[in-house]
Amino acid sequence: MPTGYTADVADGKVTDLQGFAMRLARGMGATITMRDDPWDKPIPEAFEPSQWNANKLEEAKAERARLYGMSDAEAQRAADAEHREWVQARAAAEADHTARRQRYQDMLALVEQWQGAPEGIKEFGLEQLRTGMDFDCGRPFKFYQDEPPTDGAVWKAGKLDEVARDIQYHATEDAKERARTDSRNAWIAQLRRSLEPSHD
């Protein structure tokens, strides 16, 4: 039975090495991003690096500039706003946690009282509910433990530390992406050269 790489060879649509090799290339690291593209989509002469980390790097630098330009009063207002949002989000999450646990417990009670159930289904239901409850809300509520600072200067310093880590991370990842793209492009160039007719 032909594979996706050999189907067009089997039915006669691909009869030359170049056509077959370019199909094979889609299963290799350099063109793996094309694995789900239609077979007739040509492999580009060169790939472009993803701009995701480069864009995130620029966003982080802009955020750093915004933070440095922030007055003490603005930092205090931002810290207060973030803290208020955190308190509200924590309360909502805790209420959801409690309600979810109660729904599990209510259903557990119903299943435990179930009479005349076919063999195995009651036990299976209990197991599923206990496993789900343990995963979703079996432990005491512990989310939102890291309360944001209420002091504007402390808040700003923390945000600057955070953005410095983001800048370092995205700069490193962008450099890796560019190196990977250069390597992919070199591989594609070598593939194309290897398929050129020999002039001996």
Report a brief summary of the structure:
The chain has 200 residues and is mainly alpha-helical. The chain has helices at 7-10, 17-25, 52-68, 72-112, 121-137, 152-194.
Helix and strand topology:
Layout: H1 7-10, H2 17-25, H3 52-68, H4 72-112, H5 121-137, H6 152-194
Low-pLDDT segments, ≥5 res? none
> How many strands, what sense, and barrel or not for the largest sheet?
none
The general outline is flat
The rounded Rg comes to: 29 Å
Strand content: under 5%
What is the arithmetic mean of pLDDT? 89
Structural class: mainly alpha
Molecular structure report:
66% of the residues lie in helices and 0% in strands. The chain has 200 residues and is an all-alpha fold. It contains six helices and no strands. The mean pLDDT is 89.
